[in-house]
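Bump. Still looking for Prenyl transferase structure tokens.
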Amino acid sequence: MVTQHIFSIVENDLNVLNSNLQSMVGARHPILNAASEHLFSAGGKRLRPALVILIARNTQANYNVTPEHRRLAEITEIIHTASLVHDDVIDECVTRRGVTTVHSMFNNKVAVLAGDFLFAQSSWYLANLNNLNVVKTISKVITDFAEGEVRQGLVKFDLNTSMNDYLEKSFYKTASLIAASCQGAAMLSDLDKNIQKRYYLYGKHIGLAFQIIDDILDVIGSNKDLGKPVGSDLKNGNLTAPILFTLQESYKLQKYIKNEFENDRDIDEAVNIICNNQGLKKAKDLAEENIQTALDVLPKPISSSNDEHFHALILVGRYILQQIN
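Sorry for the wait, here they are.
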């Protein structure tokens, strides 16, 4: 499988990362410490740190991964996890990846503080990279997360939401971190600014495709695949790509959303409408367009001996699409 190939060549790196994460975010207070341990025990594919490691190996002689690259990979996963903690509170998710969310296990106050703590820890480790350009690039992501959440909150159940609005919000909530971490890895390899920018664009479009596929899974996926209950975007009024495309075809779906799913069966009916129209296919096509754009800008490796890691960066697009096949 594509997944096995991508993650097998960085398996040892990710094993080290997993063992480091809990020690990096260890908190003095037992509640915060328990929350942190609970979060990282949930696992996940670790796509963001895997991309950092792959780019490091793709851009360094002899596949070297510097301690700074490894630390950046860890920082990106801490930032990502912090954002999930806050997202779960806002979206009132009870489980993620089959594990009880922090606010459900403790309470909202602990979850918000745990998320803040993780953001603070990531900022401290980021500052200690002693690379101002990387600090500027990655720290902007935390601002983007907040802007994405505010944008999403302001347009819930809003039938005037455009595809451009959706893509901007998806950039702030998901693609920004992936783009910045890819660029950060290139910065740590001391590459030309033009090449850094191309890695940024690669990460941006991979991130947009990843979010679009995640939004398709909200309609068709299992709780295990998605990490959160199916239909949660619909229920919360978050109008994603498959929903927006279907709205162009279905007046009935428009009515359900306008009435904010006032009846018990409305969500199930809405899911059926989306599944029986062209919205899912059009959303997948949009994801494929972003993956192709990512591949078009992906820089070649510094030497032919790095082909395996370069090929893995190409396969990331197939891995993302594989989630719905």
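The chain has 17 helices and two strands.

Edit: fixed formatting.
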